[in-house]
Amino acid sequence: MIQPIVVGTDGSARADVAVEWAADEATLRRCPLHIVYAAERWDYDVPFHAAPGMCESLTETGERVLAEAVERAAKARPGLPVTTELAFDSPARALRSQGRRADEIIVGHRGLGGFTGMLLGSTSLRVAGHVPVPVIVVRGEVCERRGEVLAGVDLSEDGTHVLRYAFEAAALRGAWVRVVHAWRLPVTPLAVRETAALSQERLTDAIAPWRAEFPDVGVVEQTPCGHPVGELADRSSRAALLVVGSPERDHAPCLGSVAHGMIHHADCPVAVVPPPG
Q: Which CDD domains does UniProt cross-reference here (predicted)?
């Protein structure tokens, strides 16, 4: 069974951009699109008995927002299969619940404050790195005309999942891949040249299998000395998509510091890819 691309919406301008981006992604990956709206009945996760008519009002609002999102997706990609879901839950829980039956989950950078809460500090950070599928945060300048997929890899960890996703995304877009591994200055100044050479050698070795599997995808390898967040952010303005990994801690997925930084600072959509589970 083909899993859908799932996108959350709240009817805001940034969510509209995310819906259009998700429609393009679904078309590229030949997946259906599933649009989710979360109508949260209470604040601060404290339930209460809803006032008469409140649930009906939430339902009407949700159905209207979903209908508008379907229309927007259909306009962007005519013929794309689209389904919708109105969830009475918090935005983060509503999207996390999709993790086992989605190909990818897509959220906007900023929304209205509730899905009605898709503010960066809440939904995006509570979903990315916490589900077993890639999460794409649509932020920055959305420009598919940029012919580059930017990937940040940490050579101290297994970056296979990041490289696989980046090369697949580039192949789908007819783009090239820029793979960046940033390293820190060693304690001993005399070891700088050795550290730089070793970083380049290890990056070349890590990329070699993907060059072989995707011979038509051009590759740029870079091993700058610096902090990965700054180095990736500086390069993100030239990319159609930035790909980073989420680490696993205590056998559970989490959002690492680099992914967290890129969700805040990248100038393009950010894909946070979990390790294989």
A: USP-like (cd00293)
Listed residue (104, 128, 180) closest to 149, CA to CA? 180
- Domains of the chain plus CATH, in order, are 5-138 (3.40.50.620), 148-273 (3.40.50.620)
Task: Judge contact between 131 and 8, C-beta under 8 A.
Answer: no
120-163: pLDDT as tens digits: 347 888 899 899 999 999 987 676 667 999 999 999 888 999 99
- 59-67, long-range: CB < 8 A, 24+ apart: 59/86, 62/37, 62/86, 64/11, 65/9, 65/10, 65/11, 65/37, 66/9, 66/35, 66/37
Q: CA-to-CA distance for 209 and 212, rounded, in angstroms? A: 5
pTM, entire model: 0.89
Q: Which two tokens stand for residue 78?
A: 């005519």
